[in-house]
Amino acid sequence: MRLEDELKQTKFKDEHQRAMLNIVFTANWLEVSISQVLKPYDLSSQQYNVLRILRGSRPSPLNLLDIQERMMDKMSNATRLVEKLRQKGLLTRKQCESNRRKVEIRITDKGMDLLTELDPLIDSNHKQMTKRISKEDAATLSALLDKLRD
């Protein structure tokens, strides 16, 4: 559906404003869709992102700063997210033996099992969300978004 129809707005200042609003609107649309997949698992998209980051570093641990730097949402409170995931048994926090100021964070087997269960659901969600654009369109869109951030 066109942005104008979604927002019930027919005029924008210019095409740049329309593009920016379209990016924000679409990002929220994608976030809602992913959140619906994660909700039955009592996970937020930020928590899911932390688990994926830890899976990617496995078997090596990460510290809080490493996780924060790799997160999609840089405004998230990584300390709070890690603690919630620890309470759920999805990751561990351990003080480093050689440097007591450093905390090593690792995904648990339970966390890995959860991601294994979620992977096909998230993949299916992504396919559903992008079914209207070709691979070429997706590549063009990604290139344009990269260019925007340069």
How would you describe the oligomerization state of the chains in this entry? single chain
| Percent of residues in helices | 55-70%
What is the mean predicted local confidence, pLDDT? 92
Work out the count of structural domains: 1
CATH fold-level name: Arc Repressor Mutant, subunit A
Largest sheet: 2 strands, antiparallel
Summing up helix and strand content along with how strands pair, one would put the structural category as mainly alpha
Proper CATH architecture: Orthogonal Bundle
Radius of gyration (Å): 19 Å
CATH superfamily: Winged helix-like DNA-binding domain superfamily/Winged helix DNA-binding domain
CATH class: Mainly Alpha
Provide the spatial order of strands within the biggest beta sheet.
Answer: 1-2
Secondary-structure element order, as H and E? HHHHHEEHH
Which regions are unreliable across 5 or more consecutive residues at pLDDT < 50? none
**How many β-strand runs?**
2
What is the helix tally? Answer: 7
Instruction: State the separation between the terminal residues, measured CA to CA.
Output: 28 Å
Describe the structure.
With 150 residues, the chain is mainly alpha-helical. The protein has one domain: Arc Repressor Mutant, subunit A (Orthogonal Bundle). 63% of the residues lie in helices and 7% in strands. The chain has 7 helices and 2 strands, in the order αααααββαα. The protein has helices spanning 3-7, 15-38, 45-57, 64-70, 78-87, 109-129, 135-149, and strands at 91-95, 103-107. It has a two-stranded antiparallel sheet with strand order 1-2. It is elongated, with a radius of gyration of 19 Å. The mean pLDDT is 92.
